[in-house]
Design a protein that fits this description.
By secondary structure, this protein is an alpha/beta fold. It contains 13 helices and 15 strands. Strands 3-2-4-5-6 form a five-stranded parallel sheet, with helices on both faces. Helix 9 runs parallel beside helix 10. This is ABC transporter substrate-binding protein.
């Protein structure tokens, strides 16, 4: 428009008002025709985007032992259908393709290649699992396809220098470990810590950062014993016996699945009464119930999300909005399905990224909007928790709550803590 007005001023100097009117009309007409000196509307597209549609992809286990996480995909479908029914995002309908990888790396590779090479999606978001996503990590980065909001907190996803197209969607395990370590220093400055950890990258992601915070605090709180276990171990009883005899008054439990349930029960059986810390991914109701809710009382873990199906949040506007979506589009999903609510929060975040893209729907701009999301509050998050992504640091969030299990629910600390 500035070019048009500039042209008008020059014409005014040379022509009468009548001549100017005719000439101005010709300039306006030229602005809608292809011409070297006239710029068309700024619309940019990569594969998966057009004037009418945006294609997104995802792989999650819709089948197999991890199939309970398939609800993430079904909620994504419902959320984008709701947006489409309201006109879409910036006038474009979203076509969301959620594919089954059965939590298998080979199947994840196959499904991801299909999404990129056959379906030609603009981006992938909300895919699940460290092992499956590692199998397509290099491939997606070599193709320049955004791999956003991953449902895994492995530290490897925070590597913008070498893998700029990949970003986690959960709190990174080191972030969680550092905040728990700060809590230990504040409540037990002379703590003697015993640790049981899974003998793989998952366990080590927690271990190193936790120990470093203790050392940086002056070293009065110390780790006095470490025990490991493998996923194939039938029990962790011998490790717990060793830890209970070590003199530790803090037990950091970096386990998953049945090992978590076994260890919580065993602590009670041994009559050991340490301050117990538990990794957030193992705080699910099914795991604690298998351990015995009474045995899990007073365990400390981090929290960053609201829950559905509990009285505490039943009047929360975001929980109410999710319930409306569930009733209309997903009536077969239980109203207390927190995994579904997590999927709702991630779909809303991906929708916000696309909204911010405007008419520049290139993969580079999708990445730009995702990496500048700092300050955005997902409907899934507790108050005071926001995304913290920057182009140089892909840590999803740096502030989390410390919480204590009261035997039925998690009581939050007064203020969130920052790593």
């Amino acid at each position: 428009m500035r070019e048009l007005f500039a042209s008008g001023r020059e014409i005014m100097k040379k022509h009468t008002r009548r001549e100017f009117g005719a000439t101005a009309l010709s300039v306006i007409a030229a602005s809608v025709l292809p011409a070297p000196f006239v710029r068309a509307a700024d619309k940019k597209y990569d594969p998966g985007a057009s004037d009418t549609e945006i294609k997104l992809g995802q792989t999650v286990p819709h089948s197999g032992p991890g199939s309970l996480y398939g609800v993430l995909g079904r909620v994504g479908e419902a959320y984008f259908q709701m947006l489409n029914d309201k006109g879409g995002i910036n006038g474009r309908k979203v076509k969301f393709l959620t594919m089954d990888d059965a939590y298998s790396a080979p199947k994840c590779v196959e499904a991801t290649r299909r999404l990129v090479e056959q379906e030609e999606v603009l981006a992938l978001y909300g895919s699940l699992g460290t092992a499956p996503q590692t199998s397509v990590h290099k491939y997606l980065n070599s193709k320049g396809v955004p791999q956003l909001l991953l449902n895994t907190g492995a530290s490897k996803w925070n590597d913008p220098k070498n893998f700029k197209w990949t970003m986690a969607g959960l709190p990174l395990y080191p972030t969680e470990a550092r905040i728990l370590a700060k809590h230990v220093v504040s409540v037990k400055p002379n703590a003697k810590v015993g640790i049981l950890y899974q003998n793989d990258d998952f366990g080590r992601d927690f271990l190193g950062p936790f120990k470093k915070v203790l050392a940086d605090a002056g070293g009065k709180a110390q780790v006095i014993m470490e025990q490991t276990y493998d996923l194939t171990d039938p029990t962790v009883d011998s490790q717990l016996i060793n830890l209970s005899k070590s003199g530790a008054d803090v037990f950091y439990n970096i386990t998953t699945g049945k090992a978590t349930s076994q260890s919580i029960r065993k602590v009670t059986e041994l009559g050991w009464k340490p301050l117990q810390l538990l990794s957030a991914g193992s705080t699910g109701r099914s795991i604690l119930s298998a351990a015995g809710l009474e045995n899990a009382k007073d365990i400390v873990a981090i929290r960053y999300n609201k829950e559905v199906g509990v009285p505490r949040y039943e009047k929360d506007p975001d929980v109410i909005a999710f319930e409306e979506l569930r009733k209309k589009y997903l009536p077969n999903i239980d109203p207390d399905n927190t995994i579904a609510f997590a999927g709702y929060g991630q779909a809303a975040t991906m929708g916000e990224i696309l909204r911010r893209c405007g008419d520049d729907l290139t993969r580079a701009n999708v990445l730009k909007q995702a990496t500048t999301l700092a300050g955005f509050h997902s409907p899934y998050f507790l108050e005071g928790i926001n995304y913290s992504y920057t182009p140089d640091d892909y840590t999803p969030m740096k502030t989390l709550y410390v919480s204590i299990f009261n035997g039925k629910d998690w009581d939050l600390s007064g203020q969130p803590m920052t790593e």
